[in-house]
Every structure is written in structure tokens, then in C-alpha cells.
Amino acid sequence: MERNLTDQEITEFKTDGVAGLRKAVDGIWVDRLSAVIDQQLAAPSKWSNDANPGATEDRHFSDRYLWQENLEINAFIRESGCARLAAQAMTSKSARFYFDHLLVKEPGTANPTPWHQDIPYWPFQGKQICSIWLALTPCDIASSSLEFVRGSHLDNKYYVAEVFGDNDDSNASWINEGSGEKCPDIESDRQNFDIIGYNMAPGDALIFSAWTLHGAQGNGSTDQRRAAISTRWLGDDAVWFPHDGADPTVTQDDVSVLPGQAPLDDAVFPELWHS
Predict the structure, then answer these.
(1) What is the pLDDT along the chain (275 residues), one digit of tens a residue?
(2) Strands 226-234 and 195-197, how do they pair?
(3) Under a CB-based contact definition with an 8 Å cutoff, are residues 16 and 67 in contact?
């Protein structure tokens, strides 16, 4: 089963900066990707962040950039229909893949995901850049589903990237080097922001702009893991923009394009949809 975005979903993405997609992909992908989660928890890659290795509770874990070596994730980005959904949301003729990101909070994980935009962390500029966050377990706000500041992608704000969690995390040592203004303290002033959140079932997804402010609570469940995979997508106006504070996983040495150019490097940013 491959679906298309509805007109309402496209409108929500344009106006709110996020759209909730029920049954975004075929259910078989939930089973296949859940198995990948278990594999990576047992044997993380060099790009993982793991706040409490080996624990079944109070463990905040992420892993990323697995698509070139993990056959299941490679199949998912190419066969699930997510590339088409990203292009439709961004009103883009094409969708290039940037990277995959596994996200896990075991039961009782207190660590929140701080409010942030994605764009300052990535070596790209452009408005047609988005993520598709696919729930692999049931989740609500209390168990760390995402929340968003509605319409914040239209504010023309660029907030400096900040460290998530442990400041000693070697994989985050590159953050806090970029430019931009400090993100407002949304959590302590929630009543003054138009915050929207989503209750999700496995296979539901959130598609949102890289410019939309978002965050998540810790996982308050005592018995339910919160697991998701987020895939990142580049549309027609995206250009390569390496800068201080950007994720160094892919650098100028890894690509065949120059700053300010479209990321037409199929080995690193494969085009997976074109209309």
C-alpha cells in the first residue's frame, strides 16, 4: 500500500508546518523497522547516542546514517512511498534523501527532547526541507510524541543549534558553534505559544518542515517503549550549506557539490522521487 497526501494534509503542512498522517505506510514496515531498532540497541553504530547503554528503562537512544549499510532501512527509504509524500508536502518536483534517524526512549526516560528547529543542525539551506517521523510504537504526549509550535516555520527565525542531553557527548561536541539567536524557552512559557501535539499509533507519521519548532517530553510510561524512525528529505530549493555548528557526519570532503549548489550527488543524497 502506498498512499498520497490529501489536500487537507498538504494545507496543514503549509500553514501549520506539520501534518499528521494516519497509516502513512504499509504496516509491514513497522515490523521490519522495529526489528532494526532491537538490532541497533544491541549493537549501536559509531553515530549513536546512548544515555544509558543496555538498560531496559530510562534509556534515551538514537542512531543515524544507517541507510547505506542497513538493507532494511535502505529498502524502506526506496520502497515505502515516503519520498513521494515528502515531495507532495513540500510541493517539490523531486525528493532527495538526506539521512535516517532512529529514536528510542525506553519506559521511564526522563530526558525531554528540547524545543528546536532542525535546519540549524544540517548543512543545507532552503524552505523545501522536511522530515517524516514514523511511529513504531503507540505514543502520546505523555510518552514522548512530538509537539510543535504551529506556524513557526513561517516566522523567518533561525535558532542556534544547542546540545541535547549530556554536554560531554562526543557526538554533540560540534554543536553550539553556529550562528543564530537562542531558541525561546517555550516549555516554561507554553501558554504564550500555539502548541499542537499528536497521539499516534504504529504506522502513523508526522511530516514537518525543518524550520518548525518542535520538541518532546520524556517517556512517562512505565511499560511502553517509544520508538520511531525519522527520515530527512531535500526538495527543489535545497542547497548545500556547510557551516559551523552543522552535523559533521557528511562534510565537504564527502560530496561532489560546492556550497550554494543543489545537492545533485546521487551517491550521498539519492533522488528517490521525481514527478
Answers:
(1) 679 999 999 999 999 999 999 999 999 999 999 999 999 999 999 999 998 999 999 999 999 999 999 999 999 999 999 999 999 999 999 999 999 999 999 999 999 999 999 999 999 999 999 999 999 999 999 889 999 999 999 999 999 887 765 444 544 554 555 677 899 999 999 999 999 999 999 999 999 999 999 999 999 999 999 999 999 999 999 999 999 889 989 999 999 999 999 999 999 999 999 99
(2) unpaired
(3) no
In order of 85, 119, 140, 236, the CA distances from 36 in angstroms are 23, 27, 22, 31
DSSP 8-state code for residue 14: H
Closest C-alpha among 57, 149, 66 to residue 104: 57
Question: Residue 3 contacts by C-beta under 8 Å, 6 or more apart in sequence?
Answer: 21, 23, 24, 25, 81, 85
E-only strand ranges, 1-155 = 18-21, 49-50, 60-64, 94-105, 113-116, 124-125, 129-135, 146-149
Contact 165, 111 (CB under 8 A): yes
* Environment class of 42 (CB within 10 Å of its CB; exposed 0-12, middle 13-18, buried 19+): exposed
Max Cα distance, the chain (Å): 48
And the C-alpha cell for 100?
535516517
Q: 7-251 maps to which CATH number? A: 2.60.120.620
CA 39, 42, 47: angle at the middle one, nearest 5? 85
In single-letter form, the type of residue at position 241 comes to F
Specify the pTM: 0.95
Where exactly are the structural domains of the chain?
A: 7-251
Sign of CA dihedral 30, 67, 128, 229: positive
